[in-house]
Amino acid sequence: MGQNMGPNKMAGSAAGNNGMYSNNLKMNSMQNTMQNLSGMQTMNNMSQQQGGLQNMVGGAFGDRGRKACGIDVSKLLSIDQVAGQVYNLSRDQLGCRFLQKQLEDNTMVSLEAIFSEVMEHMVELMTDPFGNYLCQKLLDCCNRQQRAQIVQRVAPHLVSISLNIHGTRAAQKLIERLGSEHKPSLPEIEAVVEALEAGVVKLIQVGGC
């Protein structure tokens, strides 16, 4: 004979499901806010970024050639060659591109090496002009355990990251990777929701929502 679920267990299960549903709704709302914020920042800073990017690209490829942090990127073949230099490379245009390419071409080998060197700098890199792209790529490639570590590290700083012109994209990527299709844990969702709720008024004001 099957066991009947008692009223207390049923109530507890219902409360848990309601809590998850509520958090998912909040995550969807936060994602919309982040998208609006990102679009607003892009529009407000487009002309400034365009001029800065032209100067930046000219300097990177003209004056410095193919070097990143004193390393000739054109001669690099694997992540092993830059052990101990990943953090510095992640903040350089050419270096960041190399690291992203390694994650794309050799994920299994590169992921742990890159993750271990940048994890403690994740908050800073999310707002870095180049590092934020590596953070986004890491979020696309990392496993659930690594994602949980990222959430734990950045959640207390998520509002300030979101309000940064470079950080807003990385924050948006983090929220996207906590969608139901990626099977986030309840602690991950709660950490992000709690962090963003604390600054939701500021996010909405800046995002023009």
Q: Report the count of strand segments.
A: 2
| Biggest sheet descriptor | 2 strands, antiparallel
* Arithmetic mean pLDDT: 78
Span between termini: 55 Å
Low-confidence blocks of residues: 43-65
Q: Tell the overall outline.
A: globular
Run of helices and strands? HEEHHHHHHHHHH
The amount of beta strand, in percent, is under 5%
Radius of gyration, taken over Cα atoms and rounded to an integer in Å: 20 Å
What's the helical proportion of residues?
A: over 70%
In the sheet with the most strands, the strands line up as 1-2
Q: Treating each run of at least 4 consecutive H or I residues as one helix, how many helices?
A: 11
Structural class from helices and strands?
mainly alpha
What features would you describe in this structure?
The protein has 209 residues and is mostly helical. Helix content is 71%, strand content 2%. It has a two-stranded antiparallel sheet with strand order 1-2. A hairpin with a 2-residue loop joins strand 1 and strand 2. Helix 1 runs antiparallel to helix 9 and helix 3 crosses helix 4. The chain starts with 6 loop residues before the first helix and ends with a helix.
Describe the structure using short key phrases:
209 residues, mainly alpha
Fold blueprint:
Layout: H1 7-63, E1 67-68, E2 71-72, H2 86-90, H3 93-105, H4 107-118, H5 122-126, H6 131-141, H7 144-154, H8 158-162, H9 167-176, H10 186-197, H11 200-207
Antiparallel strand pairs: 1-2
Helix pairs in contact: 1-9, 1-10, 1-11, 3-4, 3-6, 6-9
